[in-house]
Amino acid sequence: TLLYASSVTDTSFMQLRSTPPAGAVYAAWSAIAPSPGISVTGIHHPSADLQKISFGSLQSYQACTNLSTGFFSCSQASQADGQYLNIVYTAGSIEAGSSGSGLFRTIGGSHYLIGQLFGGDSSCSNPSGENEYGRFDLAYNTALHQWLNAGSTFSLSVSKPGNGIGTVTSSPSGIDCGA
Asked: Tens digit of pLDDT per residue, the chain (179 long)?
């Protein structure tokens, strides 16, 4: 089920309709805006091929615009104005069919998702090309926090005016609205 989509950061967020298969692993994420110069890792499956990994660094923030030709144009922007991360890989490259793949950074020995591939011009024949990733921190602060911040406590108000009947239930259980 599509819960959120935004062309601003090229983000789609879906809820699975059934339990993932046994052994599925979830990626940790960071909602902190990354700083230019940090080391990053791209993990992708180009055109449904075997998993690939690339290593590089965050060069700058970018503001990108879709063009009517099916391509996009980007220009350097400030952290406040850039919706995308410009990445250049020093080992490996991104290949066609990798759109939407994850960009990770390492914090304290753990790996955290910080972006998803929008597009770029790097390839095996152009390994120093640039790649643009939608900023996870912007998507998180705009909307994703309402589903991913499960450890938070939220207030719920239920009023019982009138003479109707009904039941309020919760999952996990714990909400008790009385008679």
From this structure: 999 999 888 899 999 999 999 999 889 999 999 999 999 999 988 887 888 899 999 999 999 887 777 678 889 999 999 999 999 999 988 888 888 889 999 998 899 999 999 888 888 888 888 899 999 999 999 999 989 986 666 566 777 777 777 777 666 666 767 66
Residue type, 126: N
Tell me the chain's radius of gyration from C-alpha atoms. Answer: 20
Residue 86: name the closest of 145, 129, 148, 127 by CA.
129
CA angle 62, 64, 65 (to 5 degrees): 165
For the chain, the straight-line distance linking the first and the last C-alpha, in angstroms and rounded, comes to 33
**Entry field: residues in the chain:** 179
**pTM for this predicted structure:** 0.78
> Chain centroid to CA 109: how far?
20
Q: How many CA atoms lie within 13 A of 85 on its CB side?
A: 32
Q: In this structure, what DSSP letter does residue 20 have?
A: P
Contact status, residue 104 vs residue 113, Cβ threshold 8 Å: yes
